[in-house]
Sequence to fold (196 residues):
Amino acid sequence: MRWVGLTGGIGSGKSAVAARLAELGAVVIDSDRLAREAVAPGTDGLAEVVARFGPQVLGPDGALDRPVLGKLVFGDEAARRDLEAIIHPRVRARTAELATAAPPGTVVVNDVPLLIEAGLAGQYELVIVVFADEAIRVARLVRDRGMTEAEAYARIAAQATDEQRRAAADVAIVNEGTLADLRAAVDEVWQTRLLP
Fold:
């Protein structure tokens, strides 16, 4: 098994890179998806989040209201750390289970948005970082996720800097062109760095 970390700032195109790696044959473990599962209705993770942040973080259906929670934790360092202390151990445990279940010889890509912030770079054989200019990222977040510019800048500011990411990157993929350009860059990394 090859153990690869994939990260990039919000709006960089990391999810598109993960999708292409999956198409090429990698087993992709999506930490964002695992984080959502960790606080799904009926889980002890959700119960802990409600105990810490109050019932206002629940929607009418009893599920986590992510935008409400986001407003509480982004910009409040202590609150964000409390949330991470609830979610991250659950995500790490599930990631280990999924990686262990991967067939021998597989390229396993752990898609981790906060890989640098969590100090996880040293756990991987190879770290791939997706980069895009901040203005491009903000425009994508406004267009694709309905954020205001202020919200987009706040999310970017809450994450690692590009300099911190560059320091941890074994492979850098710049995503400032078309989807076809991005796929070609990922294909090259697959052929030259990931296949045995």
Summary: The chain has a mean pLDDT of 95.
